[in-house]
Amino acid sequence: MNQILKVDNASFSYNGKEKIFEGINLEVNKSDVLCILGPNGTGKSTLIKCINGLLNLDSGNIFLNSTNISEMAKTDLAKMVGYIPQSHSSTFAFSVFDVVLMGRAPHLNVTSVPGRKDFKIADKAIESLGISYLKDKTYTEISGGEKQMVLLARVLAQEPKLLLLDEPTSHLDFGNQIRTLDVINRLSQNGLSIVMTSHYPDHAFLSSNKVAIMKDGGIMDIGEPESVVTEENMRKTYGIDVKVIDMDDSRKACIPMQIK
Amino acid sequence: MNRAKIGSITTTTALIVLPILLFLGSFMIGRYPVSPTDVLVAIGSVFVPIKTNLSPAVYTVVWDIRLPRIAAAMIVGAALSISGASFQGTFQNPLVSPDILGVSAGAGFGAAMAILLSFSTVMIQVTAFIFGLVAVSITYFFSRSFKGDTTLMMVLGGIAVGSLFSAFISCIKYVADPEDKLPEIVYWLMGSLSTVDTSSVVMIIIPVFIGFSVLLLVRWRLNVLSMGDEEAQSLGVNTEKLRLVVILCCTLLTSAAVSISGIIGWVGLVIPHMTRMIVGPDHRKLLPATISIGAVFLLLVDDVCRTATSIEIPLGILTAIIGAPFFIYLLKKGYEGWS
Q1: For residue A232, what are the contacts with CB-CB under 8 A and spacing of at least 6?
Q2: Which residue of A84, B90, B209, B334 has the fewest CB atoms within a 10 Å radius of its CB?
């Protein structure tokens, strides 16, 4: 059944006392898109960082392809898992191509520089997202939406099995949000598994086949978008009233009501 | 595309040819006149057995006086520049210079103490080198005792260690004999290559060689590291280890440079920026290019130092006088290397 990721009874705290989250269980299969919803500060980003090995769990385990990540070398982990952080800036004015090329880092040893094969893979990643026109531009001078595409290209050059996206749509305009979700859909159709966090319940309908709601350090509900993104769950999660309506026979939409 | 390629070939050629030309040209500059052919003959006759009728004085000037000095200027300039560029990438901060972790102040203290204790020239250099390493070690282990953001602690720790050693230098100046020791210490701290001889250049060759080669080997990883720790780690880079390697190399280089030249400011800050304007921020090109431009810059300045006036101008003073306005000029011209 092609299980890529399994999070087993995971808990984490920064200081050893206050738990950020506790008893988290998740499973992600090949081509799954899991969208994690939840209010600010519930540890969505922290969980993503734990899956990526940037932070270590207090207890519990995370398995990638049935291997415990605590037993994996960092470079092996980076070959399996790609990560795009929430906000991003670069101090130096690298070209877009140079940034994408960095995705090859886990595949090269410490003293080597990327070669022809790596250039090709980077080129292919850039082309597959339709951003060839950006290739020679300066990364620090392109727009937020373009940056997001460049980072996606970089993560594709990394050739991972699992993609972790921390709020991939949060800094984007309306159109770029939907375009990003479209890319996510295409990537999952090509066999990538994706875990992303989001503040837009509606995005779960647009791109995910699984939704988890994190609240108060645990998973409140998990399952298909239609059964998790409900009017009642949204009220419990965000404390506001929403209407979940049928757009047509294939899609629902989640619309917030006015606060009275 | 084609024009860009031609441009990059021109740049590469210039970066290789300029240092060689200036290296040869600098032999002709100085109080004792040596003609271009004499220089070539004096250098070539050692490698190829040709008959010459050059006076021994020309040999002495070329081999024992000018060669060590020219070599030292180039090595020191290159070492400070590549260290500056590597540190700026490693600390993701374009304002960082090679002495950010306290190496210059440490080396200065070592030299001042050695001068106070009437050590020989060689021992002054050795002591300076060792105390440069000591200062950075203190900074490093201090920062490692913290949990969390060690990079920030390292920079702050470096500032603290630097001013601590500066205070020690002041102590030594205060107790030094104002007739002979004090001027010597002050002169050393200003930075100069006037005391350099063959043995001092030979002494620093090993640390400098290690520093250059390791930094050049890991130069592409510096690109990844300069994007921030978290991102570099998610790309499988062991950031702590890589940073330690870079710090070690830069400290070897800077300590070696400072030990024979004294404290020379600005080169390690300005040259990396200037080079970034020419070849861009990619460390694959940036690091080799800083070696070339750093060497050329310091050799030029040192040529001026030893010939412009009848007494030597301290090198450190001139690099600051040239470096600071030049830096402002670069900023004015619309430098876009930092966001």
Answers
A1: none
A2: B334
A99 CB neighbours in chain B (<8 A) are: 227
Query: What's the complex ipTM?
Result: 0.90
Q: How far apart are CA B257 and CA B268, in angstroms?
A: 11
Nearest-Cα distance to chain A for B41, in Å, is 41
* Smallest CA–CA distance from A96 into chain B, residue: B282
8 Å CB contact between B199 and B122: yes
**pLDDT at residue B57, as a whole number:** 87
pLDDT, one tens digit per residue, over B280-301 is 999 999 999 999 999 999 999 9
Indicate if the pLDDT at residue B84 is higher than 70: yes
- The shortest CB-CB distance from A102 to any of B230, B235, B337 is to B235
Q: What are the structure tokens assigned to A188, written together?
A: 């999952």
Indicate the pTM of the whole model: 0.91
Phi-psi region of A22 (alpha: psi -120 to 50; beta: other; left: phi over 0): beta
Residues from chain B contacting residue A94 (CB–CB below 8 Å): 223, 280-282
Cα–Cα distance between B24 and B43 in angstroms, integer? 10
Burial A120-156 (b: 16+ CB within 10 A, else e): ebbbebbebbebeebbeebbbebeebbbbbbbbbbbb
End-to-end Cα distance, chain A:
48
Beta-carbon neighbour count of residue B317 at 10 Å? 15
Q: Residue A17 belongs to what H/E stretch?
A: none
Cβ contact, residue pair A94, B281, below 8 Å: yes
Write out pLDDT tens, residues A167-212: 998 888 999 999 999 999 999 999 999 999 999 998 999 989 999 9
- Residues on chain B bordering chain A, Cβ-to-Cβ distance under 8 angstroms: 89, 92-94, 217-221, 223-224, 226-227, 230-238, 242, 276, 280-282, 284, 336-339
B59 half-sphere exposure, CB direction, 13 A CA radius: 8
SS3 B266: coil
* Smallest CA–CA distance from A90 into chain B, residue: B227
> Of A143-147, A154-158, A255-259, B185-189, which one has max mean pLDDT?
A154-158
Contacts of A111 in chain B (CB under 8 A): 217-218
